[in-house]
Amino acid sequence: MRFGEDISLPLRASGSSEKLIIALDFGTTYSGISYCFANHAEAKPLPIMKWPGLEGLSVPKIPTVLSYNSGSTEKFTRGASVDTNAKDAIVGIKLLLDPEQTRPMYLPTSNIKKDLKALPKPAVEIAADFIGAVYNHALQEIAKTVPRAYMKLCNKEFVLSVPAVWSDAAKIATLKAAQTAGIHPVTLIKEPEAAALHIVKELGFSMRENDAYIICDAGGGTVDLISYQVEQVLPRLELKELVPGSGELHYFPEYLDKAALIKSTKGGMAGSLGLNKRFASAVQALVGDEQWLTLKRGKGWALAEKQFDQEIKRAFKGDVGEEYFVNFPLADLWDDPEGDLVSNTWRMTGGDLKQIFEPLVKDILNLIELQVKEVEIKRPNSGISGIMLVGGFGSNIYLRERIKAHFNGIEVLQPEDAWAAIVKGAALSKLPQQAAVTSISSTKHYGTAAWSIYDPHRDAGQATQIWRDGSERVEKMSWFIHIGDDIRRDQKVKYTFNYMLEEDDFGKEMVFSDELWECQDRTPPVYPSKSRNLKTNCIVKWDATGIPISKCVQRTGPNGKVFYDLFFDLIVTLESALMTFSVEFEGRTMGSVEADLVPGRDTVTKLLSQ
Description:
The chain is an alpha+beta fold. Among the domains are: 19-190, Nucleotidyltransferase, domain 5 (2-Layer Sandwich), CATH 3.30.420.40; 444-607, no CATH class. It has 12 helices and 29 strands. A 7-stranded mixed beta sheet has the order 17-16-10-11-12-18-22, with helices on both faces. Strands 1, 2, 3, 4, 8 and 9 form a 6-stranded mixed beta sheet that branches. A 5-stranded antiparallel beta sheet has the order 20-21-19-24-25, with no helix packed on it. It is globular, with a radius of gyration of 27 Å. It starts with 18 loop residues before the first strand and ends in a 16-residue tail after the last strand.
């Protein structure tokens, strides 16, 4: 049953000021939920600790895995209740919402479009099924903690965490999944931002104004980094984003098995899909392709993978001389004394483990290095107070030691509840009286294309058009947000443009489409180009029908004709993880759209810049 179907727990309670905040860390490998009653005098996010399939255990997260019943795309089991050997177990749902992300060179290539078609239903719908189910379970657990009458009084506010490196299209897909599950309205928050709010809030007693921390969220499939500066500790915690988010998303379609993505190992509490993938490759190289095909379908491999996930990779501290014995029960593998494989047991050394860890660790070190350099540029005389590790892989001992050794002189912190930091911080973000990120640093350039008066010196060689007023114009980019710009959460970025109209245009239907462009090049182009890093982000449509001619500015063009300039403002606002693009006329919003990815460029703008 989806959450939206539970009529006894309405989304909004009419006339009530009571508020229940519910936050979901929708992770690649594990997901968790936290909640808090905002009107409580000492409101503090609490994680859901009881889950189906984990009876008798208290854990803040469950595997992000779902399995549909045979012959059905509606009935399913999820989380720890999923059979670990089920061929139709689906994991990696979250990563499929952003298939455009670049994959690391050390992982094999794959046809992602083909992989998506192998799913029993669209990825957004699968994500909706999982999200709806865990939210519904969470509400049932929350309802056990307070009187039902009070629960009915509470208005529900929802927060979903997303990777900082995700595209706007993937963020929109996440919102669509939540809406399909009957959960709305939803606020998105970047995962490192959520982690920063929780950790810095918990360590507030030891924080000082102007401290700067790099948050490294190393999870199952993503590695996100953002740097923050402490602006204020009391009376409420305020953070400022110093450096735009950076990172990588690791997608593993090689685990596809017919209609399934990544068979899950139940109960593992930490780790990275990359480590598990490289462990599988190491075992395949050890036993050979012929034995591997048989091994990976049996119980012996499921138990060995579980042993690696739960015990071996968490115990590794970097000692290459350490020995680990990986067992493949009932696998009937051929003995290979030279490869240390005897009686279905592989004597794995610390050296073997280091080879598995190395590419991922190097990637993370490089990403942190980039953040360190960017912070030092912004704060040349203040330095970096520390590096905070969160997420499943962020809890790894070996990763922490490698980072400490590489960044000698910078303190490396690994909070005890690093694994649950994101979900707690996501809920905390809805308690602005306690903690808030007041400004963010843009990860892209944003702007529009408009037709400007042609300048033969500056615009030589560019294609021009003779406009209806007789002027010669060239299409140029107007960038109003640049990479690294500090944008306050309550700030409106406003630029004025105009449409050139004739008297005959009035009285007719006037519907305009304006595009928001994005670019990730260090220096954005002056003119629209076919650069792969320049593309349409979204299109806002607005209706100017009925605006009287008296609201326009009359002028005479170079050709002697009379024209009417309709001036309006394009507005960009940044709220947490999503951007809103809107059009205002005389202070009134005429059209609004959340940033989305629009394939190609299918319109020709008629915007004019002065």
